[in-house]
Amino acid sequence: MAPAQQPTEFATYVVKDDLVLPDGYAYNVIGAWGDPVGDSRFGYNNDYLSYVEASPGQGFLSINFEYISALTWMETYQPVLGKELPFDEVKAAVEAAGEDGIDVYSLPDGNPLKAQIQEISKEALIDLGIGVISVRKAANGTWTRTNSNADRRITGISGLTDGRYLKATGPATAVFRKTSGIGYIDGLGERIIGTFNNCAGGTTPWGTMFSAEENFQDFVPEGVNADGTSMSPSKKPFFINPDGFDGLGTALGYAGNKYGWMVEVDPANPNDYGTKHTWLGRYRHEAVGIRAVAGQKLAMYSGCDRRGGHLYKFVSAGTVSDPTAKANSRLLADGMLYAAKFNPNGTGSWIALKADTPVNPDLPSQIEGGLITLPNRPDGGVMKVDNDDQIAAFKSQFKTLGDLYTGNATEKQGAILIDAHFAGNAAGATTTARPEDTMVRADGTLFIAFTSGSPSSSDGGPNKAIFQGPNGESPYEYGWIMKLREDGNDPAAMTFRWEILHVGGEPAEGGVGFANPDNFELDSRGDLWMVTDMSSDKHNRAVPSRIDSEGKPVSQSNLRGLFGNNSIWYMPLNGENAGKSFVFGYGPMDCEMTGPFTTGDLKTMFISAQHPGEIGGTRKDMAAETRSFAMMTTDGKAFMQQREVPIGSNWPAKTTNAAPRPAVVAIRRVDGGTLV
Q: How far apart are CA 594 and CA 530, in angstroms?
């Protein structure tokens, strides 16, 4: 649309509480929270999706269930599941406890409050983890479930009472097997109870899916001791926050060092309840990019989705023979984990996270927010460093990563992997802008979504010289999409080159038009799809003026209200439209569209709608309100928009007062053609 037309055409706008797609496209719901799956149920806040074809038109759909949107989950638990939980009693106890929360772990057995919190914790953890469902494509292009014997749930309590423990490989198992140490040990050895905070992931050429445990620090302590053992569960009290629960794991006595990993599952094997490969590191994993080339090392890329998180690469010790062979899973039991060092000139290198790697942290003055976090010795956990002089003292005291950790060689390597983010900071890995998805194209190009360049007071932020807006802005909230190429196109290369493909933000300011890029999909043609992840409380937040009440410009964070609901984008990398970006759709109210996965024939996109109604809850009697937005045309002319915004959500039922439910859908063209 020509810029001159935009103020008239967009003077008013009505937001829909629906998955909105272009004309000629439709979707059908495959599964939603509460539906039966095996001997359990479809979980909450579905995220990454993996489709592994078993035969033409049918296969296994694996689904991540990430976290609990506490207020909406509690409001809709009884209407959706038909059961009651002691929410009122526990909320009253949490409120009475104040800012310290409730140390559930230390409450005596038999305490009524402990039993109530554990009951809620178990139910919430059942709604997290991984699900596998069998699906088939019907003649009209819709997808339905076939309910095979492979359908199952791997939940946050698998193994707690049913013996379905998860397994582990790699050096951290030496720490798990310890019977004594500095900190807390759960006594289960290599056995692991459950998986949770399962965000993005990846699908291997050999037919398995990887599930990324992301914000585990909300459920168990993140920091560890020098020997890799966990902090006491008492260090993570139970809270109920507007956007989630804290301490669900510690309420049940979980050891924190067993969460924050990549989990591999074979969806076709009904007896597989997951393996955590510890060579891939423990941090706030968001996705995994897989590069398996015959005759070369296996490479696995992942990001730590935190402000100041790193980009990582695992390189196997062994070599890939057949990329489609299930034996490739064994390559993950031995290798090395590296963290990326970015240089402002578009080059970079990989730093090995091992005992003899020198300690050489970046200076706080180089980092947005002026803060870096490092392993705290001798007390364990982490410490915040906000002064450059402190870095010199730290380097003087600790020469190598091995000086920061204890144990024999294997235990020390395991402890480094358990503490990967903070070890990476100590080694000088570049702090980045919340790396979310990582995905490898067939030609070896790695695409990385950096979702936000804003810092935080707890983690710091990205390197100022690397992460800048289109006009040199730092900090820059709206995010970037980066391309990375290994030197020599070798998966095991120790150097690389990088460049920015797309920058978020308003077109008038040099951005593409999105805010906060998140999950990717590379389709069978090699083109890129992307979904955004703006914070739910920013969706359609009114912007009546770009100057606030104090006469200052409205922050980029609060300007995100201009961008409406989270959206789906198509970004061709081939043909005449290569390098352009197109909006494909947007999601229901307060929702994040996640985990897009296209079928090989490019006729279906599976996608998740996560946390509809997270802020407004259930939409009551089709409630809506009109809000004002100080918009800009694509060439920078100001105009006002009046936008009608639904309050809460009734998706996917879309009937008056229906409870919102996270759900997985299949998108198709009505005429049966390819998506693009």
A: 9
Instruction: Indicate the helix (H) or strand (E) that contains 195.
Output: none
d(CA 658, CA 651): 8
pLDDT tens-digit readout, 573-616: 999 999 999 999 999 999 999 999 999 999 999 999 999 999 99
What type of residue is 390? Q
Residues 6 or more apart whose Cβ sits within 8 Å of residue 643 = 12, 13, 14, 15, 540, 564, 626, 627, 628, 629
Quick: pLDDT tens for 430-462: 999 999 999 999 999 999 999 999 999 999 999
Q: Residue 80: in which H helix or E strand, if any?
A: helix 70-81
Do residues 51 and 61 make contact, with C-beta atoms less than 8 angstroms apart? yes
Angle at 55 between CA 51 and CA 57, to 5 degrees: 65
Residue 626 has pLDDT above 90, yes or no: yes
- Report how far residue 671's alpha carbon sits from residue 380's, in angstroms, rounded to the nearest whole number: 60
Q: Sign of dihedral through CA atoms 315, 321, 322, 327? A: negative
DSSP assignment letter at 20: B
In 3D, which of 210, 216, 213, 416 has the Cα closest to residue 300? 210
- Taking alpha carbons only, the member of 370, 199, 172 closest to residue 276 is 172
- Give dist(CA 674, CA 415) in Å, integer: 48
Q: What angle do CA 499, 502, 503 make, to 5 degrees?
A: 105
Please check whether residue 445 is in contact with residue 485, taking contact to mean a CB–CB distance below 8 angstroms: yes
Backbone φ and ψ for 441, nearest 5 degrees, come out as -80, 160
Structure tokens that stand for 186 in this block: 């759960």
Pairing of strands 347-352, 495-503: antiparallel
- Parallel/antiparallel/unpaired status of strands 167-169 and 275-277: parallel
The tokens for 495 are 């150097």
Q: What is the pTM of this model?
A: 0.97
Report the C-alpha gap between 232 and 253 in whole angstroms: 9
Give the pLDDT score at 242.
78
Residue 243 pLDDT > 90: no
pLDDT in tens, 98-130: 999 999 999 999 999 999 999 999 999 999 999
d(CA 601, CA 674): 7
**Which value, to the nearest 10 degrees, does the dihedral of the CA atoms of residues 136, 141, 144, 149 take?**
0
